[in-house]
Every structure is written in structure tokens, then in C-alpha cells.
Amino acid sequence: MTDRSAPIGVFDSGVGGLTVLRALQSELSGEHFIYLGDTARLPYGTKDPDTVVRYALQAGQSLIERGVKALIVACNTASAVAMPAMAQHYRGLPLIGVVHPGADAAVAATRSGQIAVIGTEATVRGGAYQRAILARRPDARVTARACQLFVALAEEGWTEGAIARAVAERYLGPLFGAEARERHESADTLVLGCTHFPMLRDTIRAVIGTEVAIVDSAAITAATARTLLRERGLINGVAHEVGARPLQLLATDGAARFAAIGSRFLGRPIEAREVELVDL
Ligand code: DGL
Question: For residues 231 and 90, what is the distance between their CA atoms, to the nearest angstrom?
Fold first, then answer.
């Protein structure tokens, strides 16, 4: 029998998954989370699928060895590329990625069925979002574009201003500009298919206008996790106060950098001494 008070593992290639952890902590306020950011090997988004699978399995294994009762893959690239391998290796363990919840949210948000997805190179190349959306709404028209530079901008903290705006226009102009509208190819819903991209939400909004629904998977992934844990009888009922929620932060490199950059993603200050360095 799995112990309800066991922690929940959350994994990302770096600090981006802290945007998902934030949603998980507020949705599941009685839980103890262990977050692992594979900062030594970030970015995953430019790597070959085999490499991403290998890294994801190592990260998952490290969390399982710490006794987690469920595993949240809070990285779109790992969710898009490595979920089948992880599901095969961790049979019986509740396993939740961000792609399927993100596809649920996109299909719920769109009216026209024209959906744009942006993510890392590996996420877009693998086609997991496109397949997940079409499985839910077969008449949807999905366009996808890799926006790899957004990852670096979010890490650097350059989420607003002229540089962020120019990059966003370059990536999103072809999806939402006048020409796309004239061809009736402009989407009414944009999926932020990378955990870093919510940091650029205001800049993205300024470029695509107010009519387009912006979907990110954090909140819906947290709700999906709650549903699955409840079904399995694994919810830890005793809620913790906001400042006292048990959290272990693990990283594979750079505790100080993780703390400095991660603070923005988590929405609260992280001290470098809170971050334990681990080897996978
Ligand atoms: N966290 C990754 C994702 O959501 C983005 C960063 C990376 O390329 O590793 O896809």
C-alpha cells in the first residue's frame, strides 16, 4: 500500500517546471513535493529524442528512489517525448505529464478549432501536442512553431521590453499577423507548450492581441493530478499553511543560479541553501 503522506515528485529540465509546481502547491495544499530540476543538462528542447528519454528516465528514477507516491513531468519536452517510456518503466505509479492536460485546455478554449502551439524544437518536432489535440477534436487545425529563444529569454529575465518583443514578433507574426488573418489561418487559441513560456505571457499577449485565448498547462495539470490522486485514494488531507508547505528542491547543477532564476518562476524567494545538488 502506498503511503498517502509520501511526497509527490515533480521533474523538469530546469526551473521552468516551478510554474507548474506553484499551481500544484495551491491545488494540493496538503502535499509534500520534491522538485527536481536537471539544470546541468538544460535545455532538453534542442536534444535528440533518445537523449531526452534517457535523461527523463534517470530523473524519474532518482525521484522514485526518494519514495514518491506520484510523478508529475512538469516539462513539455519530456512529456512530449518520454511519457511512453516512463509509463512502461514505472508501471502502477501515478504519472502525469503536461501535454494531455494542455490539449484538454486548448480544446475547451477554442471556438474555431484553429489552434496554435508553441514549444521547444523537440516538443514541436515530435508532434505530441498536435496528436493529442486531434484525438480530442478531429476537425481541429493545429499549427505548431518552435520558439526556442523564449527559453533563454525567460532564464535571463528578459521577459519584457524591446528584445523580448522583437523575438515574439518574429516567432508569432507568421501565426497571428495580417497575412495569416487574410488566409483565415489565424488561431483563436495559443498553447504555451513549454513551462518557461508563461513568464513571457504579457509580451506574447501584446503581440497576438486580446482576442486569442492563451492556454498554459499549469493549472489544468494540477487539477488533473488532484483527480488522479483522489481516484487512487492518495490525497494527503491535512492542508499546510502557505508558508509551511513541505518542499524539497533538488538540482543537478548551480544551486545559486537555480535559486536566483527559480524565485521568479516559483513566485517567492528561494535561498541557495534550500537547493540540494544531486547527481543522476
Ligand atoms: N522545460 C522545458 C519544456 O517545458 C523547456 C526548457 C528545455 O528546453 O529544457 O519544454
Answer: 18
Cβ of residue 258 lying under 6 Å from some atom of ligand 1: no
All structural domains of the chain: 8-97+219-277 (3.40.50.1860), 100-217 (3.40.50.1860)
Closest CA to 140 of 188, 172, 80, 97: 188
* 191, β-bridge pairs: 117, 215
**CA separation for the pair 35, 33 (Å, rounded):** 6
Name the residue of 99, 196, 197, 261 to mutate for ligand 1: max ligand atoms within 8 A of Cβ: 196
pTM, to two decimals: 0.93
59 lines ligand 1 (CB under 6 A): no
HSE value, Cβ hemisphere, 13 Å, CA-based, for 184: 2
Query: Mean pLDDT, to the nearest integer, of 11-34?
Result: 94
CB 33 within 8 A of CB 246: yes
User: Is 80 exceeded by the pLDDT of residue 37?
Assistant: yes
Instruction: Indicate whether residue 53 lines ligand 1 (CB < 6 A).
Output: no
Ligand 1 nearest-atom number relative to CA 17: 1
> Is 1 a residue whose pLDDT tops 80?
no
Q: What is the CA radius of gyration of the chain?
A: 18
Q: What does the alpha-carbon distance between residue 191 and residue 129 come to, in Å, rounded to a whole number?
A: 9
Q: Give phi and psi for 133, each to the nearest 5.
A: -70, -45
Angle at 41 between CA 37 and CA 45, to 5 degrees: 90
